[in-house]
Amino acid sequence: MMVPLRAAPPPQVQPEVQDQATVTGKGLELAFDSVTKAFGDVGVLKGLDLVIPAGQFVAVVGRSGGGKTTLMRLIAGLDGPTSGTIRINGTARRGLQPDVRLLFQDARLLPWQRVLSNVGIARGPDWKERAQALLAEVGLADRAGDWPYVLSGGQKQRVALARALVTEPGILLLDEPFGALDALTRADMHRLLTRIWRQHGFTAILITHDVAEAVALADRVLVLRDGRVAEDITVDIPRSARVGGAPRLAELERRILNSV
Amino acid sequence: MTRTKALRRGLVPWLLPLALLAVWEVAAKAGWLSARVLPAPSDIAVAFWTTLKDGSLPHHVGISAERAVLGLVIGGGLGFALGLINGALPLAEDILDSSLQMLRNVPHLAIIPMVILWFGIGEEAKVFLVAVGVLFPMYLNTFHGIRSVDRGLVEMGRVYGLGPVALYLRVILPGALPAILVGLRYALGIMWLTLIVAETISASSGIGYMTMNAREFLQTDMVLLGIIVYALLGKLADIASRWLERRALEWNPSFHTGLEAA
What's its membrane topology (chain B) (predicted)? Predict the structure, then answer.
């Protein structure tokens, strides 16, 4: 059921030749081998064994304090695990990783840099062209010269998304990035994210409180409870059929809510 | 509409000072005010013109400005550097900060007798005093600015692959800049204050010397001229630092006036 959707992506906003080469199959596989994380005596993650295949869209839900943010910081490389290994495409890694990018809850744009410079924060060769191309992809091509403070919340988050993707990461972490947005903007962002995920093919890991958001966006929902994966649910509904009120969707949501 | 409004906003603040000036002139010329107490504004203008023509005013202003700038560069630069180092390295903070805080509590004008013993009344004494005066506001504000940079932005910079140098130049320093510029404005105020006191107590040139010299010969107009020159120089420094703030903090909505936004 997923196949026709992937085979017919929406028309590309930026049909550039150089983009085509980099876009194909950049998603990275992420694996956890009995990963634990403790702060002092308090164990936050208690043995995580998990494989997330390349290109999958995974949502992680759970109560506050269930270890969601800790998991995110481990994947991002901001913290190291207490024991166990995190492997990306089979290679054990620690520390900050250039092929992993994080979309924060607040956009965290540098207020003293214009939108284009924010997107191209990592610089590197041709950063201006690449930043401009990504801005076009998120629909903000004409805001490149603006200061961040003139943007709305949704626009800031779109700039942050462009910034995360400008280096073509293999894994994109999303830490409740749409939590502060209003319902309409949030729906727009969901559509945008789904489209961009399809085009770029990165592995997406979305941390969220919102079970409806999780089942609307993800291939797979992990319920994190007491530092363990309590439930690993595949969302076996094509994205086109994931509209409010679909019975199968409601059933999944109920199941997830019950296990949270 | 906006133009006339802007014009009015530009003119209105000047009305009261101009009116006071007119009253003062009339009072002085009519003899209600003794020239010894308060000479007429026109007399001060004449004094300004004569001293400008014989070159003594530019000479003294030049010397004072040189002392001020030199002191600001040395003391401000040192304070800035110390703030940067202590803000970035906790070890440096442990070693230096408490000593600096102790020194900060000594009013810098209290060390004038000491400074005269060390340097006599030469140039070094004035420059040293100014430098000591501006060091602490620059240090404190730079340090505080660096410490109060949004940690979320620093974390973002690290996740997005900025190295230590890029992180410092593109995230930490710009984040601290508003506080650093506040420090600079404080420093400019202290700079003039210190210079006035230092030149009045011990000097053989400069605006302070000029006014003290005029006092001995009861030239009240020259004394007032000196005060006005100080005020103008202070205002000039303030305008310069405001301009710098507006240029450097263009990204910050609180530095945009309604006029620019329109």
Answer: Multi-pass membrane protein
